[in-house]
Write a structure and sequence with these properties.
Layout (H helix, E strand, L loop, with lengths): L1 E2 H5 L5 E3 L6 E2 L1 E3 L9 E4 L12 H6 L4 E4 L12 E4 L3 H12 L8 E6 L4 H14 L4 E5 L2 E4 L2 E2 L12 H13 L4 E5 L2 H5 L8 E6 L7 H4 L2 H14 E7 L3 H6 L7 E4 L7 E6 L4 E6 L2 E6 L5 H16 L4 H6 L12 E5 L2 E6 L4 H12 L6 E5 L9 H12 L2 E4 L9 H9 L8 E4 L3 H11 L5 E5 L6 E4 L2 E4 L2 H18 L21
Parallel strand pairs: 4-5, 5-6, 6-7, 8-12, 8-13, 9-12, 13-14, 14-15, 15-16, 20-24, 21-22, 21-24, 22-23
Antiparallel strand pairs: 1-3, 2-7, 9-10, 10-11, 16-17, 17-18, 19-20, 25-26
Length: 510
Amino acid sequence: MIELCELLKNWPCTAKGGNIRALVSGVTDHSAEVIPGSVFVARKGRSVSGLDHIHEALRNGAVAVVSDISNPPALPQGVSVISVPDAADFLAYACSAFYRHPSRELTVFAVTGTNGKTTTTRFIGQLLKAGGIRAAVIGTLGVWIDGRKTPLQIPPMTTLPPAHLHRVLRYCADEGVTHVAMEASSLGLSGRRLDHCSIDYGVFLNIGTDHHAEHGGEESYLRAKGRLAGLAGQIVLNAEDPAVRSITADRLPVMTFGERSGGDSHLRIVDDRNGGWVISAGESHSVIRAPVEGRHNRLNAAAAFASLMAAGFGLADLCKHASCLSLPEGRMQEAEGAGIRVFVDYAHTPDALEAVLGALSSVCKGRLILVFGCGGDRDGEKRPQMGRVAGEYSGSVWVTSDNPRSEEPARIISDIMEGLKNTAAIVRAETDREHAIRGAIYEAEPGDIVLIAGKGHEEIQISGSSSRPFSDFRTALRFLGEREAEDGASGGDDRVQTTDRFWYDGSGME
């Protein structure tokens, strides 16, 4: 608890009415989260305004309402009306202040990039844990401390909003955590969720084509990513990504990473000829057995190594713990049965899909069979690009629904098909994702690899205004089990043979 006047004393504002010494029980911009004693920040959101929810906040017990409009509405006697220059800026500051600025007690790594944030933050956490350091990882998969998921209730967001972020950071500090690795999404950065959070190292992985529409174009997307360079004390970056270089041009990195040689503050990582990695930085040099597959995951590991070296850890010590690295749930997650390998991966951008397909094609003994779709109400321009990538690497493609949201699944599939028109792959359209996964698994023969891409760890599928429980991995396990049972009962000869090519014109199967 903190007095309202203490919360406001370091902030430019005017306060009218109410009790300036009222005890504050929380700060939030969501009226449904208001409890008696809360400060409600009525800021403007992407689609709604907090001003429309003031009455709900008052019903729930708000003692003060903060806004940045010149003429705030009249409020009941006993409620403080506080005017600030920027409500979003105040929200971030006030949430940090309410929890006694917990980020200042921690070493914080914030990782941004179109792809790889979840894996890189997990790698940082794993390396720290292996070195005996209590570390937390915050992001898409929740809050983890020392490799175990915490029971904290948080919204399912890549980057937490300030009211939840600083509560989590306070919990971590009180639990003896000293280092935190968290994901910094473009939407989180543009929404000011990380403002007034003490970030020691900003880590830049890559810049691809995603979320352009949600930001109003590529330029705004790049500007959002670039905000991390201004928020972080020091930056670590992928030296070989031109877009990363462009958005961090005014900052000198403390460490860089990549596959080419560099200076003393550069970590180089490449494959050796024996299934391992060669890692070098300055005069330090190590050869280790590769704990994960794929060039993209090797670069994610390089980002984790470089970030920890920037924080003072030695390369030799980090390499001793490299065997602990393992991928998060829904990232190259493998199941096997009936001689078939099935992988589930979150790849939902053209770059990510190409990276995963490239990694699997290098180890696939038979055909590569792909199941994927694209999300609705999201960047439509990437759909044909993903179709092109799918056809380039796969022998068979099942185009299906991802999270269609408010869009018609047939429209999304039609957009993807534009990129598959000149491919040699066998292409099928199946709007029901469960049926598509079954079809792919029953189509496969021993030696084939099935990749189910796009949803990864997600446990629901969103269609229209409703959602239903759905897990790609559990669905794959179920059909693999059925396939094995049927093959066993029939002596292994009862397989679905599919040789015809199908095209989808948006209205039906042909």
